[in-house]
Amino acid sequence: MGILNSFLKPIVAAGIVATAYLQPLVANAADIDALMLQLKDADPADAARIADEIQLEWNKSGSASADFLLKRGREALERGEVSEAIEHLTALVDHAPDFSEGWVMRAGAYFHAGLLGPAVHDLEQALRLNPQHFEAMIGLATLFEMIDRPKDAYEAYRQVKAIHPAHPDVTEALKRLEPQAIGQEL
C-alpha cells in the first residue's frame, strides 16, 4: 500500500495542477466566443475595442515560457532585428505548436525578412488552429495581393468581413479587388 500511495500522490498532484491551468483556458475560449458574437454586430467604434479585447485573449498562451518567447520575438521585431525575432518565434512555435498567435507573429517576421512563402505557410497554419483569426486572414489577403493573386485575396477579405464587418480596411479592399476577382459589368 505504501508503494501505491507514493506512486499515486504525484499523479493526483499533477491532475490538480493541470485542472487549475486548464480552467482559465476554457473560460478564455468562452470569452472569445462571446466577443466574436459581439464583433459581428458592433458599430465601428465598439468593433475596434472588441477586436482589441479579442487580440488580448489570443495573446494568452497559457504557458509562461511561450509568453516569454512571444515577448522576445515582438521586442526583436520592434528593434528591427528580424533574424533574432524569427529565432525566438521559431522556438515559440516549436514549444507551443497549437498557439496560433505564435504562427501569426512568425509570419510577420518572415514578411519583414521578405520571405513571403514561409509567411503564407505560417498564416495558413494559424488559421488551421484558429479559423476565426481575422488578423491572420488580413495578413494572408495582403500577401495574396502582393503576389498577384487577387481572387484569393478577395476571398480572404470576404471571410474577414463575415467575422469582423466593421474592420476599417476590409470594405475598401473588397471594392478595390472586386473588378479583378469577380470581373466588371459591361
Please write out the topology.
Layout (H helix, E strand, L loop, with lengths): L1 H40 L2 H15 L5 H15 L3 H14 L4 H13 L3 H14 L4 H13 L3 H14 L6 H12 L5
Helix pairs in contact: 1-2, 3-4, 3-5, 4-5, 5-6, 6-7, 7-8, 8-9
Please explain how this structure is put together.
This protein has 186 residues and is mainly α. The chain has nine helices and no strands. The chain has helices spanning 2-41, 44-58, 64-78, 82-95, 100-112, 116-129, 134-146, 150-163, 170-181. The protein is globular and about 50 Å long. The relative contact order is 0.08.
Please tally the β strands and state the result.
0
Structural class: mainly alpha
User: How much strand?
Assistant: under 5%
How would you sum up the major sheet?
Answer: none
Q: In DSSP terms, counting alpha (H) and pi (I) runs of 4 or more, how many helices?
A: 9
Radius of gyration: 20 Å
How far the N terminus sits from the C terminus, by CA atoms, comes to: 85 Å
- List low-pLDDT spans: 1-27
Percent in helix: over 70%
Order of helices and strands: HHHHHHHHH
Question: Which tags fit this structure?
Answer:
186 residues, mainly alpha
Summed up:
It is built from nine helices and no strands. It has 186 residues and is an all-alpha fold.
